[in-house]
Amino acid sequence: MYRLSALQTSFPRLHYSVLALLAFSIGVCFLLETDQDLLNYLNAVQVKILYAMLVGTYASIAVICIDLTDPAASSG
Fold first, then answer.
1. Domain count of the fold of the chain
2. pTM (2 decimals)?
3. How far is residue 60 from each of residues 22, 40, 41, 44, 51, measured CA to CA in Å?
């Protein structure tokens, strides 16, 4: 009975906005790190690693949002 009531409650909108703010700040940090003036200190491998980390972080934030939206689908 507790599980059913937990699935029926909605996740607060504030938490979604915090996740969106996190994604936005990570994107801004990536853009600052790959600025043309700073690229003198970063080689191509480091930029590719930063981009892979950016894509991985966005993918994990998207998975968290999907799981929070519909927890019954991911519970198995």
1. 1
2. 0.65
3. 12, 30, 29, 24, 14
